[in-house]
Design goal:
The chain is of the alpha/beta class. The chain contains 19 helices and 15 strands. α7 (214-222) links the parallel β1 and β2 (229-235). Residues 13-128 and 130-145 have low confidence and may be disordered.
Length: 553
């Protein structure tokens, strides 16, 4: 997520692309030299690689010992493949360059926990020099390292505390927003339903003013049994009163607006839960964004959530980060084309876990989250403040990606039911590892049938077009505000268009919902495009429920 990380990722693309374009005579001549480089770099890598490999083996052992569906157990590209996975095997290029980059990549990635970052840079520089300063790859590598060193020196001379201040101000602002909203939210008296009334799924929408796919949701609810659902909508826009309430025809409740902001939505979630808990019939609470669509029909969702798992909650936990810093973690995952959505928290506090925002909460767990939101926010703050400290302009992750899970773990400790093992406690609570909302973060479905990553050649073209030399030369280049971030489109991915084949594949998996689809998106098949609200209902009717329910991520 850091500009410096993206610069090195660009460097990798440049190296591979330039190598692939060299004449065969130059490539073959580089093989022998590369072997010498590989031997020297490998000798340095030996002492650096032990800790991550031991951690990888420990993860595999933990999966087998616990017998649980832990994050990373048997999932493509992570613990399952472990050290057997070739970091650069997916790339094309010369044999010499692939070997050299593989060795250099492993040295960088595996050594970060045992040596300082500047020592890594020295190893990189030596490897680059030995690989051939006369080549374009060598010149680009040297250029990158030169500018990186100059930038670090300038930053240290200008104001060593500036980045820390920016990060601190960001965190203080977000925490204030969340704390204000949480402090104004309380568990209200429950309105009892009539005896024998149907249990409900509560859909909790987070929106600005309207929903991007209200037509799809209209079709969804028209097929639902009256009294088997409820709808609550929090609208953040100042002009909300000027826009008709979405889904009003289905009984949607417009809750009072609370303090909120980007990366400060835990207060909103708490307010939504508190409102939904007033109705005793609501037994499963589903968080939904304004650009989310249902991948399954209502009957499927009701059976799976209410009839089959009424008392359990569903969280999509992130796999843990391999490094303490965001920069080397980003490099590692880019080199291996593995998911960039990672948990930097658990190494600092095993009771604070990162998960996707779009959780599904059982009623009892929703009550705990509302009751302990303030305490959990404070506990998460202590971890958030030190996680991925090289992110100078922001914190790693947001409150709604950790506070709900933290609140539940606090409850099990406070009631004397903790086993001391985080995953065993979650299992005892009735928290399941289930990703029910599909959202595509960069490389998160590589090596699966749902892979949607762009070819590296296209991404290299985007870098040249939108990143230019600023990524290598400017200390002020802000990736998060750049056109390059939009073009790489993976933080998370915004779908501008959708192939019918991919939509069908999504519907066959265990996902119940999907986001982020651009408003007005059309589904194409054989050169014909149709609106999503026309295509999706037809897909709902064809879902094999037994098969899909056993393919939960």
């Amino acid at each position: 997520g850091q500009p410096s990380a993206l610069r090195l990722v660009v460097l990798v693309a440049l190296l591979l692309t330039s190598s692939a374009g060299e004449p065969s005579s130059r490539r073959s001549g580089a093989v022998a030299k590369s072997k010498d480089v590989e031997r020297r770099a490998a000798s340095k890598a030996v002492s650096l690689s032990a800790r991550p490999r031991e951690r990888e083996q420990a993860d595999a052992a933990e999966c087998g010992r616990e017998g649980l569906r832990l994050p990373g157990c048997g999932r493509a590209g992570d613990v399952r493949k472990g050290g057997q996975h070739d970091s650069l095997g997916v790339y094309s290029g010369s044999l010499a360059m692939t070997r050299w980059m593989g060795t250099m990549g492993r040295t960088m990635l595996e050594g970060v926990d045992t040596i300082e970052v500047q020592n890594q840079a020295e190893i990189m520089k030596e490897a680059a020099n030995e690989a051939g300063n006369r080549s374009l790859a060598g010149r680009i590598t040297g250029r990158f390292l030169h500018f990186q060193e100059e930038e670090e020196r300038r930053g240290a001379q200008d104001d060593p505390d500036k980045r820390a201040e920016v990060r601190r101000n960001f965190m203080v602002n977000k925490l204030h927003i969340d704390a204000t909203a949480i402090n104004h939210t309380h568990l209200r008296a429950t309105r009892r339903g009539f005896p024998g009334r149907t249990k409900q799924v509560a859909f909790l929408f987070l929106a600005m003013d309207s929903l991007d796919f209200e037509d799809v949701w209209d079709e969804f609810f028209v097929r639902a049994t009256i009294g088997s659902y409820s709808i609550y909508i929090h609208r953040a826009a100042e002009n909300r009163g000027e826009v008709a309430l979405p889904l009003a025809r289905w009984g949607a409740i417009d809750i009072d607006t609370v303090e909120n902001g980007w990366c400060a939505l835990m207060g909103v979630e708490t307010a939504l839960l508190a409102n939904a808990l007033q109705d005793a019939r609501n037994v499963q609470m589903v968080f939904v964004s304004h650009n989310t669509v249902p991948l399954k029909g209502f009957d499927y969702i009701y059976r799976q959530l209410v009839e089959n798992s009424q008392t359990t909650s569903k969280f999509c936990f992130a796999d843990k980060a391999w490094h303490k810093m965001a920069t080397p973690e980003t490099i590692r995952n880019e080199l291996r084309r593995q998911c960039i959505f990672r948990d930097f928290y658990r190494e600092l506090n095993p009771r604070t876990l990162k998960h996707h925002q779009w959780v599904v909460l059982a009623r009892a767990h929703a009550q705990v989250v509302v009751k302990r939101a303030g305490e959990a926010l404070y506990a998460w703050k202590n971890t958030w403040g030190v996680a991925a400290p090289d992110l100078g302009h922001m914190g790693e992750g947001c409150s709604d990606e950790a506070v709900p899970g933290t609140a539940l773990l606090q409850e099990v400790e406070a009631t004397g039911r903790s086993t001391g093992n985080t995953w065993a406690d979650l299992t005892r609570l009735g928290v399941e590892q289930q990703c029910l909302t599909y959202v595509l973060w960069r490389h998160c479905f590589s090596d699966t049938a749902l892979n949607h990553s762009e070819p590296i050649a296209k991404e290299f073209g985007d870098v040249i077009k939108y990143g230019k030399v600023d990524m290598l030369t400017s200390k002020d280049f802000d990736f998060f505000k750049s056109a390059l971030k939009r073009e790489l489109n993976g933080y998370p991915t915004v779908f501008q268009s959708l192939e019918m084949d991919y939509l069908l594949r999504l519907s066959r998996e265990g996902f119940m919902f999907a986001r982020k689809f651009k408003k007005g998106i059309r589904v194409t098949a054989n050169g014909i495009a149709a609106p999503l609200e026309v295509v999706l209902p037809a897909i709902w009717d064809k879902v094999d429920e037994q098969r899909a329910s056993h393919r939960v991520w």
